[in-house]
Amino acid sequence: MDICIGGVTSTISRKFLPAIPLDAKIDNIIYTFYPSVAPGAKLVEKPNVPIYIPINVKGNICDMESSLVDQYGNLIDVQGERITIKFHIREQTSKCEQESILKEEVALQKEEVALLKEEVALLKEEVALLKEEVALLKEEVALLKEKVALQKEVALLKEEVKLLKEQLAILKEQLVVQKEEVALLKELIYI
Question: Across residues 49-66, what is the average pLDDT?
Answer without folding.
Answer: 63
